[in-house]
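Changelog-adjacent note: as of this version, every example in the card shows the full chain rather than a window. The one below runs 267 residues end to end.
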Amino acid sequence: GSASFQTSPTFFKTSDAGATWQTMNFSAGPPFQADVFFLDTDTGFISDDAVLLKTMDGGSTFQPVNFGTGINSINDIYFINSRVGFLATLWTSALPGPYVENRIYKTTDQGASWTLVHSDSDMGNNSFVFAGIVELLFVNDTLGFAVGGEGKMLKTTDGGATWINIPNTLNDFNITDVDFLSATTGYICYAGEIYYTSDGMQTWQLLADPAHPYDFYSIDMLDANLGYAAGHGIFKTVNGGGVTSARDIKDHLLVNIYPNPATERLF
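Full-length structure tokens:
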């Protein structure tokens, strides 16, 4: 969790499926960016701004991990198996700048060593206004996606060894989350709304109602129909985010709705 400049960040652990939470001994400084990823009950990673830490005892103690120099923040930690993982980071330079550089690091030995596998610069931006790459998602061991600030979209088909930029057909607003079910079917939270693609990021369809924005920030689809999204509230879909009909509303609420069908108003 976040913290003020005067206090340390908060790290919690549950051993009973979330019924109760225990405060862990985590003594790093107040974070601007923080993420956590556990491989099993004992082994996990946590970021504190630009610092990467690893635990081998279920979060009781953490040790720093060296992965790169000059990093401004670690935005996301993502492992596809017990040994192969990635870091989405933001690197800032004042020369000739200021400018920021998106960087993705990869490990194949559970974080013992890291290799820079992607970098690209965004001239004229700095880390105070540019989020960088914020989310990584792998469909399988070879196919993965990355999204971030100003509509940044990346794709890998070789297990993260190389990444290619996907042209953004929307505008340059921030993408805060990505979730793909296959090579073609995926969702993003973009500018506070949810968009859907059926052709691997080539085109996008708006799913949320633009007249009633909920500032969607995160999405997790369990299958083609069932999924959850978080923003100004927590939301659930049972039809892949599709439009709900008057019949669906009537059956769910057990009320009479008329006229049905209608073009403008229901009673």
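Structural remarks: The two ends are 44 Å apart (CA to CA).
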